[in-house]
TrEMBL record:
Transmembrane region(s): none
Keywords: Hydrolase
Signal peptide (UniProt feature, chain positions): none
This protein's name: Alpha/beta fold hydrolase
PANTHER family: AB HYDROLASE-1 DOMAIN-CONTAINING PROTEIN, MONOACYLGLYCEROL LIPASE
Sample GO molecular function, one term: hydrolase activity
Source organism: Amycolatopsis eburnea
Domain AB hydrolase-1: 15-243
């Protein structure tokens, strides 16, 4: 799978691979990519298959498929080991990649994500939503999701963020988004494998996140020995956009505090 991607910063910089969530694209990580590239990191931000400029013919895309796509991209770019970060579904893909290819990962960023299984009702809701967006497209779905994606404070003070988030969701290809929802409904439980993660890990969550509340981040933090937890006040599900300065400061402090080996 040839993923569309941006590759910023010096080619000999510490590699950082950032994975967007649903229903977004690689522009989700633009603030962090520019920030880190300006500080000497090599930052790769792909569009997952079926999102943005990456195509797919899948009707169901498992998280293992997404993870293998990322490893294939890293191989093509000559990235043997890298810092790996993901938000929401991207965080679940990161956990899958860490399970399947642990030797590739030097450090982890898990932002606003959930390690456990869906309830039966939530699982069915993913299938129902996949059917709905396949039939009617993304616009109504995006408009319904938006108030839960970002906090009330963000909507009141950051029209630029609201417009960016709305655009990403409305323009997400409906077939790819539906395929990911079906695959995500069948994902494994990552909670039992969290204790096996032995690389430096930063866990970030918005204080107002409705989709993956602070309690979900606290569980991940408890299970991963030595991990760091940062709660971004006033942010919802997308703290990297809503409060990019606080998010970037936390990520930079985490990365500069670690020693990475090839």
């Amino acid at each position: 799978m040839n993923l569309a991607h941006d590759d910023l910063g010096p080619r000999d910089g510490q590699p950082v691979l950032l994975v967007h969530g649903h229903p977004f694209d690689r522009s989700l990580w633009r603030p962090q990519a520019e920030y880190l590239a300006g500080r000497g990191y090599r930052v790769v931000t792909p569009d997952l298959r079926g999102y943005g400029d990456s195509s797919t013919g899948d009707t169901t895309t498992g998280l293992d498929v997404f993870a293998n796509d990322l490893v294939e991209l890293a191989d093509r770019l000559g990235l043997d080991r890298f810092v790996l970060g993901g938000l929401s579904m991207g965080g679940q893909i990161v956990m899958q990649l860490m399970t399947d290819h642990p030797q590739r990962v030097q450090a982890l960023l898990l932002a606003d994500t959930f390690a456990g299984l869906d309830t039966p009702a939530a699982k069915q809701a993913r299938y129902d939503t996949a059917a709905r967006i396949t039939e009617e497209g993304m616009e109504r779905y995006a408009d319904e999701l938006l108030p839960k994606m970002i906090s009330k404070q963000t909507r009141a003070t950051r029209p630029d963020v609201e417009a960016h988030v709305r655009r990403m969701m409305r323009e997400a290809p409906k077939e790819g988004a539906a395929a990911a929802l079906r695959g995500r409904a069948e994902r494994p439980d990552y909670v039992p494998v969290l204790k096996d993660i032995d690389v430096p890990t930063l866990v970030v969550v918005g204080s107002e996140d409705e989709f993956t509340p602070v309690a979900d981040a606290e569980l991940i933090h408890r299970e991963i020995a030595g991990s760091t937890l940062v709660v971004v006040e006033g942010a919802g599900h997308l703290p990297n956009l809503e409060r990019e300065t606080e998010f970037d400061d936390a990520l930079s402090a985490f990365l500069t505090g670690k020693r990475f080996t090839p």
